[in-house]
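re: that chain from earlier
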Amino acid sequence: MTGASSGIGAAYAQRLAADGWDTVLVARRAGRLDDLAARLREETGTAAEPLVADLAAPDDLARVVERVARGDVGFLLNNAGINGYGPFAGLEPALMAEVLHVNVLAVTALTRAAVPAMLELGRGTVVNVASQLAFAGALPPHPLPERAVYGGSKGYVVTFTRTLAAELGGTPLRLQVLCPGLTATEFHLSRGEAPVPGREQAVQEEGGMPVDQVVDASLRDLEKGTVICVPGVEGTSPLVTLEAAELAIRSAGRGARD
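^ sequence. v structure.
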């Protein structure tokens, strides 16, 4: 699982290890990965393999892709992400490229590395972490962040995962796109150029939903077969409305061409 050194990634790793899963933990911060791996081994008796990598770096991403493609990954959590918040006209090109590499390219490449082996084994789960900001569209900033590239990248994750889930319908694989809102992590303490320093996890001042509740929602929806998981949204009516609107748009488009 990527982004395992803090927040949702670390909480998900702890939950899966408690259920008996061996884990491969991927993140940039070696110290935190070593601490988490040691804790999982001691508390759960499972194997925990730390793999230090920056998914914005092509060579590091290639190493993680190679590890996932070995065929022993039964549950892939693509959680790593950076935000690059700020006015688009002033967004540093290097940071923009990092956002797209981590949030789009890495998610796609790692899913591609995992899915063939999962199909061959006849089982497997892929959870791609997006954000409620994928649905924020034209909503103005303040209190929402300035987020054109980040929101666009998470919109890709939503569409990619939903479309792939439809393509793989009828197979034993489970796919989910997890779209949390503001979560009690350190995500907003950095734009992504560098990870938050220190070996202890921090929480941004705004707080947010506890990470354990986000993981609970994801696991519940996996059991239900729900592809889009939005923690905090009760029932499926908003998603049914979204799908109905999409169908209406596509139907109208076909009618116009006729």
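The two ends are 47 Å apart (CA to CA).
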